[in-house]
From TrEMBL:
<protein>
    <recommendedName>
        <fullName>Impact N-terminal domain-containing protein</fullName>
    </recommendedName>
</protein>
<feature type="domain" description="Impact N-terminal">
    <location>
        <begin position="17"/>
        <end position="121"/>
    </location>
</feature>
<dbReference type="GO" id="GO:0005737">
    <property type="term" value="C:cytoplasm"/>
</dbReference>
<dbReference type="InterPro" id="IPR036956">
    <property type="entry name" value="Impact_N_sf"/>
</dbReference>
<comment type="similarity">
    <text>Belongs to the IMPACT family.</text>
</comment>
<dbReference type="InterPro" id="IPR020568">
    <property type="entry name" value="Ribosomal_Su5_D2-typ_SF"/>
</dbReference>
<dbReference type="InterPro" id="IPR020569">
    <property type="entry name" value="UPF0029_Impact_CS"/>
</dbReference>
<dbReference type="InterPro" id="IPR015796">
    <property type="entry name" value="Impact_YigZ-like"/>
</dbReference>
<dbReference type="InterPro" id="IPR015269">
    <property type="entry name" value="UPF0029_Impact_C"/>
</dbReference>
<dbReference type="Pfam" id="PF09186">
    <property type="entry name" value="DUF1949"/>
</dbReference>
<dbReference type="InterPro" id="IPR001498">
    <property type="entry name" value="Impact_N"/>
</dbReference>
<dbReference type="Pfam" id="PF01205">
    <property type="entry name" value="Impact_N"/>
</dbReference>
<dbReference type="InterPro" id="IPR023582">
    <property type="entry name" value="Impact"/>
</dbReference>
<dbReference type="InterPro" id="IPR035647">
    <property type="entry name" value="EFG_III/V"/>
</dbReference>
<dbReference type="GO" id="GO:0006446">
    <property type="term" value="P:regulation of translational initiation"/>
</dbReference>
<feature type="domain" description="UPF0029">
    <location>
        <begin position="137"/>
        <end position="189"/>
    </location>
</feature>
Amino acid sequence: MKYKTIKKLGNSEKIFKNSIFLGYASPINSEEEAKTVINSIKSNYNDATHVVYAYLIKSNFAMKYCDDGEPAGSSGKPIINIIERKNLKDIVVVVVRYYGGTKLGYGGLVKAYGDTAKEAIDNGEIIEIFEKEYFEIIISYNLLNTVKKILQNETILNEEYSETVKLTVGIKTEAVEEIKNKLINNTKGNIKIAVKK
């Protein structure tokens, strides 16, 4: 399985009818991290008119958005809609608004918050994450090159050399069965593969 998130903090700045909108998109792994990001931005912009946010967490399917005093559905909802449309997970997006004296109307708010969020997300660089399963593989030295060739597109996290070679590897979930079969067949069964806990 794979999913999309962003690589790094992305930000944006937009002006709509003299209102300033500052967008921040951050990769996260939990609701606690999302709340930390939100609270930090609220603290940094404690003089802002509104601090609107939305987040979506993959592990527990948590999704939340907040309009922070803007008309219901005009600000947090457009942000979560963009997150969902881009099929992103493990992300929080916060948009800060400084009111500029002119009301934007419902449609104007949807556009302002949505455009600011979209630009912040895009600046965070969308990436694909492949879910992995982790294994310890024990082989003799003479099989090392064969095994490494099979694992060339996977992640070798650690190599230990003693009487045998022990590799700790992360294998993309969707490729686990295929890789395990190749390892067993190409080593003629002279391999130990154990799930890493």
